[in-house]
Design the sequence.
């Protein structure tokens, strides 16, 4: 089937002109100075509005322990 009322290239491009991605706005963490998304906790230190929400150091320690455990199992 042939489209009877076809849109021109310029009409299509005008419609798609609003599809571009915009650069995100970042804030600086008050505690560690890293960039973070506004109104979210900092992925680097785990704090939000001065309070510790996630224990990032503890999570990293768990990940390292799991890696060591898997490495031991793989070596056997």
Sequence:
């Amino acid at each position: 089937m042939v489209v009877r009322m076809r849109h021109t290239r310029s009409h299509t491009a005008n419609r798609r002109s609003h599809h571009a991605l915009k650069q995100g706005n970042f804030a600086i963490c008050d505690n560690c100075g890293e960039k973070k998304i506004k109104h979210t906790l900092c992925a680097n230190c785990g704090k939000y509005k001065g309070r510790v929400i996630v224990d990032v150091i503890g999570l990293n320690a768990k990940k390292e322990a799991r890696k060591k455990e898997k490495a031991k199992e793989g070596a056997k």
In short: Residues 22-75 form one domain. The chain has one domain: 22-75. The beta strands are 26-28, 35-37, 47-48, 51-52.
